[in-house]
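Form 7-S
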Amino acid sequence: MNSNQEEGHDVWTEKYRPKDFDEILGQEDIVKRVKAFVEKKNLPNLLFAGPPGVGKTTLALVIARKLYGDAWRENLLELNASDERGIDIIRVKVKDFARTKAISDVPFKLVYLDESDALTKEAQQALRRVMEDFTRTCRFILSCNYSSKIIEPIQSRTVFFRFKPLKKEDIFALIDKISKSEGLTVTEDGKEALYEASEGDCRKLENIMQACAALSKTIDEETVNKITSNISKNDIKKIFNLIQRKDIQNARKELIRTLLENGLSGQDLIKEIYKYITTMNITDIKKLQCIEACGEIEFRLTEGSDTIIQLEALLARIARILLENN
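Output:
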């Protein structure tokens, strides 16, 4: 990784990026197995798959640091395949790097291809040949969001690790670490809001906290909702309370107000309605019917239907379900 790449990373992301295996949160089983490879200095080609912000790039950089020490930058080629996805990047840049020996006592260099599922099929075929031809002088770490987009010949040449989103306790531990270091106060409802907004993505969490810190040294649910443009649970609760009181006209007005004042897309609002439905004290059958309605209306919006009409149709279906036999 060159200096320009490092400077391009978000400041907080770099500041809190783990430098050792023990600091990586939420992926203990994967870290334990990879650490064993590194200690023996006998690393196979690796394939990391999973959602963004869960430690794939971090683990790759820790591997490089542990293998090469201070010379890790000279022995690591880091590329983002979504930016350079053609066959030429494999035939020229990767091949030129892979054919030279490592500058250390480790007998191989490392190539890290981030977002490798963005490589074209032709580029992946070329990569397969490079992986075959330079097994003595180079090891490859590929990371992707969707392993199904990686061709089978590459998958068969790598040891596969599936990363998972960080658990709530891992996110809370990171929140505590950052808030202590930056002199921030995070309330309990603020922690819950940060966890829900980050969706287990620590990079997203750091960016949200950094934005919140610019507004206030105290981070609560309201501050997080302002930054992320999330809807307050009270707004959704108010809509459902109006439905259950059979005040459909005002429920409709509240729905449109929530959509427009928060600058949301129809899909965003449906996701919030879906989350609220899963917490409601209603029968499982009614929950399933409401969720089915959310899925159908979300699909219609994706296909290009009118947002207001479809949201009002969703409101009507949910009202019919909740008020049935009432």
